[in-house]
Amino acid sequence: GAVVSQHPSWVICKSGTSVKIECRSLDFQATTMFWYRQFPKQSLMLMATSNEGSKATYEQGVEKDKFLINHASLTLSTLTVTSAHPEDSSFYICSAQLLGPMNTEAFFGQGTRLTVV
Amino acid sequence: AQTVTQSQPEMSVQEAETVTLSCTYDTSESDYYLFWYKQPPSRQMILVIRQEAYKQQNATENRFSVNFQKAAKSFSLKISDSQLGDAAMYFCAYGDFGNEKLTFGTGTRLTIIP
């Protein structure tokens, strides 16, 4: 099956610094990737849709200037949390859409646990 | 906007028994997909089963099967012969046709009793 790799798996950063999370599709090309956020014991909430070669589409209530998304190639999307604060601490998960007519499955990365201290 | 509701925050089942997890959803679309994902303690999201709304036949994957009632907008997951490895959070999810942007339910934590 298709593999999506997310890096790092966990990161601790100081308040006010920026953190970059990578999402790579290892064995397929993904024109579209999605970034989700999951608070402890809660569901996944979509943050934004990352489109290769164009600007990301953000969900209502998500600050685009705080959560910068870049999808520079068909296999890589990055999420940068800028000027991180403790309330940004969460579990971030990406998923990738398989390019092709049968795009009926989302493949998820293993997630990144961000802790801002 | 689509919504997905899972009314059972927690469920438990004896090993080897059968358990059913409930899910209802709301949409105005006629073509869409429904999914059940499993999230074990590792937090990796694992696809358990999916259903295309245009298919009347209920999807099955080995011990996992669904009861898809389109008119009632209900999509329950049945796990037969429960195994210890089935213990996890289970999320029901909705996806529009041709778009893998998913809307997730709040999840059901399944415990398997040895």
Any overview of this molecule?
The complex is a heterodimer of chains A (117) and B (114). Chain A has strands at 4-7, 10-13, 19-25, 32-38, 44-51, 57-58, 67-73, 76-81, 90-97, 106-108, 112-116. In chain A, the strands form 2 sheets. In chain A, strands 2, 4, 5, 6, 9, 10 and 11 form a 7-stranded mixed sheet that branches. With 117 residues, chain A is mainly beta. Chain B is mainly beta. Chain B contains no helices and 12 strands. Chain B has strands spanning 3-5, 10-14, 19-21, 24-26, 32-39, 46-52, 60-61, 64-69, 74-79, 88-96, 102-104, 108-113. The relative contact order of chain B is 0.34. The chains are: A mainly beta (117), B mainly beta (114).
Write a brief structural summary.
The complex is a heterodimer of chains A (117) and B (114). Chain A is mostly beta strands and 117 residues long. Chain A has no helices and 11 strands.
How does the SSE layout of this entry go?
The complex is a heterodimer of chains A (117) and B (114).
Chain A lengths: L3 E4 L2 E4 L5 E7 L6 E7 L5 E8 L5 E2 L8 E7 L2 E6 L8 E8 L8 E3 L3 E5 L1
Parallel strand pairs in A: 2-11
Antiparallel strand pairs in A: 1-3, 3-8, 4-5, 4-9, 5-6, 7-8, 9-10, 9-11
Chain B lengths: L2 E3 L4 E5 L4 E3 L2 E3 L5 E8 L6 E7 L7 E2 L2 E6 L4 E6 L8 E9 L5 E3 L3 E6 L1
Parallel strand pairs in B: 2-12
Antiparallel strand pairs in B: 1-4, 3-9, 5-6, 5-10, 7-8, 8-9, 10-11, 10-12
